[in-house]
Structure prediction request, 1231 residues.
Amino acid sequence: MEYSILILITPLLIFLLLGLLGGKLKPVIAGRIGTFGLLCVALLSYVIAYQYFFVEGTVNGKWIEKIPLNFEWLRFTDTLHIDLGILLDPISVMMLVVISTVSLMVHIYSLGYMHGEGGFQRYYAFLSLFTFSMLGLVVATNIFQMYIFWELVGVSSYLLIGFYYTKPSAVAASKKAFIVTRFADLGFLIGILVLSFYTRTFDFGLLTADSASLVVTSMQGASFMGLSVATWALALIFMGGAGKSAMFPLHIWLPDAMEGPTPVSALIHAATMVVAGVYLVARLFTVYFFAAPDVLTMIGYIGAFTALFAAIIAITQTDIKRVLAFSTISQIAYMMVALGVSGYEGHDGLGYMSSMFHLFTHAFFKALLFLGAGSVIHAVHSNEMSDMGGLRKYLPITHLTFLIACLAIAGIYPLSGFFSKDEILSAAFHHDKILYWTLWVVAGLTAFYMFRLYYSIFWGKEKVHHGEHKPHESPLIMTVPLLILALLSCVTGFIPFSKFVSSDNLGFDMHIDMTIALSSIAVAVVGIGVATALYMRGGDLPQKIAQRLGGLYRATFHKFYMDEVWQFITKSVIFKCICAPIAWFDRHVIDATMNGLATVTQKTSASIKGLQSGQVQFYTWIFLIGALVIGILALCV
Amino acid sequence: MNFLSLFVLIPMLMIVALFLSKEMKQIRAVMVIGASALLVLAAVLIVLFLQERAISSDEMLFMATTVWYEPLNITYAVGVDGVSVVMLALSAIIVFTGVFSSWNMTLAKEFFLWYCLLSIGVFGFFISIDLFTMFLFYEVALIPMYLLIGLWGTGRKEYSAMKLTLMLMGGSAFLLIGILGIYFGAGHTTMNIVELARLHIPMEMQRWVFPATFLGFGVLGALFPFHTWSPDGHASAPTAVSMLHAGVLMKLGGYGCFRVAMYLMPEATQELGWIFLILTGISVVYGAFSAVVQTDLKYINAYSSVSHCGLVLFALLMMSRASMTGAVMQMLSHGLMTALFFALIGLIYGRTHTRDIREMGGLMKIMPFASVCYVIAGLASLGLPGLSGFVAEMTIFVGAFQHADVFHRVLTIVACSSIVITAVYILRTVGKILFGGVQDKHHIGLPDATWFEKVSVVALIIFIAFMGIYPFGISEIISDGLAPVFARLAI
Amino acid sequence: MIVQMEHYLVVSALMFFIGVYGFISRKNMIAVLISLELMLNAVEINFSVFNRYLYPERLEGMFFTLFGIAITAAETAVALAIIINVYRHIGDINIRKMNKLKD
Prediction:
């Protein structure tokens, strides 16, 4: 399967082509080149998936890790070196399919959505760069390769969020996204350093082999500040994942990242890049499970808290993209919880499997939601719910696909979200009841805020569409991707996922736990019902409730003031209390000392230069006195 | 005549040719031809070096010695190893691009005369293996700086030039003490580094000679707290001088630190290294934090240089082979990056006539080429994989973290944190000056980079990307050159 | 009364210290020059006297005196030329003002 290198080379070449020659190409041509390249990538990844899953992937019923390519890129020491290579195993192949599919849809969709925007070539160049980096990330054979591409996706995300670079809010958002994730990456890097210090390898294969025995034995007994080193290392690595996957309290960048073009949000900030953290933990799951189970528990609780926290905030947001952003945070947290509650081997590894399953299904319906939202924004030129309402007549296809996506994310049978969410709940149920009930509540909240969104956009009173034109359905080039994604959201749930993906790479049978399934559907239906009652007709009941809740509502609306907290930490603490004093210290203490040395020298010479008066008579006088003194002294002695 | 001497001879010939040339065109021709010759020479050197290395196991290659002053054992001795080859290549690149960045200098002839003298010093330093000759070239590189900044600079140029020269001269006073200490400590028989390395300097001697030498070179390598010449000096210097100074001259410090101080006095390095390690650790973080609040583009870059050059010394003092390799890679990478930054800042300043980031904005719309290059430089500086900064920093961090001592590992983590702060100040600058709306109406319609500026910038970007994508070759050459140094340190 | 060596020496010492006093205290450059001459002449007297009384059979002291006189003459000429030039330039020969070179 050596040809799999092409899925990395193609987008890279397109990036270089569009990046270097973009200005010379016509925008449309550039878009078509990019889309065509992505089509090739997508087809290739389907071929790889077919080859892997149905032809070459198993040995005695066990999924194997195939490494068609691996070469040494940079050698640090005799044992530590960064390799670049391609690792194919069930989750990486699954990710290849997800990324290339969603990316292809976004490429096609953008041909319509971004039509006529300045910097079209640049947009496609960055999209290709992103796709390249993301694919490189998932096929990484070692943790350092993952870190390399991790940084690259961060940069492409930065460039795409700041695509409208003349808009100050977009610039600020891109900066924030990059710095917050960079901060998390510092943890990731330190984690890698600690891990590699003990294990003397970066290689995933060696790290995870034999129930992560290498990690367990090499880190045996080592501890730092009361916690075992393995816990430190893996918690720090998780910190990197938490940054990318927007776990509390590092989630603040994701809602702001919605400043980017909507298709970008669909691709990067909903379907692919933000799940990199989940993917990272899944990739190292064996290590986590055997070397630091306490970190897994922590991941579970952080995930559950984030899921609840984000779901509550999502209820009050009015910007449709922000609702979706918080929904994304909440859903990714779901996947994290699933990993946190997972066991190892066979059916115990249900959490691991369901996490990947949810990642898979979520990618499609969340991308669909974002692209649908993009279509709505395209029609009404606004992100605010208050500017929408009653759009179902004007945007029939968008309406239908959006509804499918909403049902999918709410977890209604037989849409894909139901299956994956059910498995997560079931895994949580058997592991930790607190986590289970939290997730159960979140499921209800999810259904509620998604249908609040849905009704506010497509139902309720029609707004006066000031201006000359009525909202209209998007062109075919935008609706076709919507339809494809809607179809995928409908059918992907029926994939026997556990046959392909499992914690120990041996397939197992999953089955739907009826009690849990019924209870989760019930809570979703309640959520939808409440949303229908409140928002379908568009009355003023919601405002009344909001007023009743008073402070609680305001706190939620302001995202529990997390932005302000971070703002305070960065602006007031780091900037004013660390950077500014250091700079002041540099100028007024260190530099002043140096200048002081110079001044002292100058002053001293100025004060004694009077002796060198140029008056020969004075010199003679001094000479005479000196001679006399010496003479007298000579006589005395 | 050894062919390494060509590195010194070519700039000398350029000086003669400059004396003879009258018109601007001739001057430019002389400079471009000379600088290209140096670049070609550096390329030839790399090829020859690789061939020779494959068959020879000598520590230094292409050695040649001419006795200069018998009674004091002063010789003109040249020779190169992997590290000096890399540094020579870096110098050639920067000298070459610097010529294009100072295309329209006033008093061009005089400027380039001093510029050539400066390059004589730089090249001479890297090819020398005799302590005295090395010191001589070091001084030759310093003196022109005073005139180049004092005459062609901007802002408080006289002050800065004086400050820079005095501080660096102060450093070289320590250096001279150090060199004499080494010479007499090793029994005053030779000044040749390769021969000195076989002799032993008594420990009581090393205890004061090592700090003097390290400090002497450290001042040039912007060691905290002797770095304050750097912000003022860079801010006032003309573009090409900033490029050469931050790009190459500051590397003289790092190079000297390990070639002279650490190589010749390994025992003292083991014993006293930790003091300087702490100072460099401070440099790394301190420089980065200081850069965050600066408002002058050149100051930002100067403080960033303090941070990055601090990392060089830091990695050297970690004394593992990987971290020392990383240190040399960081020298190379920082040299290229910072030269690119200064070239672009000079370009922007030449048009907007301000370097205050608060007075600029939206330059991306006005000069897209320069802005894109600035973003690339910024990304290289904050360590984007695929560009040079990443490979250098990662080699340092991984190498340093392999240290057996917990204190060193914790210090490495502290140094690691600079990557976040770097991101903060780089993105702050980029966001302020390139993105957003146009701040000053007068900036609208300013021209983008001219062809000669493009040559300089593009050349640097190509080398940065080359190093970022193809690090293993470079890392091999360096690591190979470091083997004897490391062998002595690992006692 | 026989003139002893000491008598000569007293005269020359007086001359010398008068010269010193004049050299230090006078403002007029010509007076300073005269004082200088006094000191030199005092020294020359000493040379001759010592030669005459201590080593009458040798002549080095006398020679030295003659050399000294010749050099003094030359020096005086140069000094006067300088003084005249200074006077032409700044219209004054006050030695206290002759300190413009120090800065």
About this structure: The mean pLDDT of chain A is 85. Strands of chain A lie at 58-59, 62-63, 66-75, 81-88, 223-224, 227-228. Chain A touches chain C through ten residues (CB under 8 Å). The first strand of chain A starts at residue 58 and ends at 59.
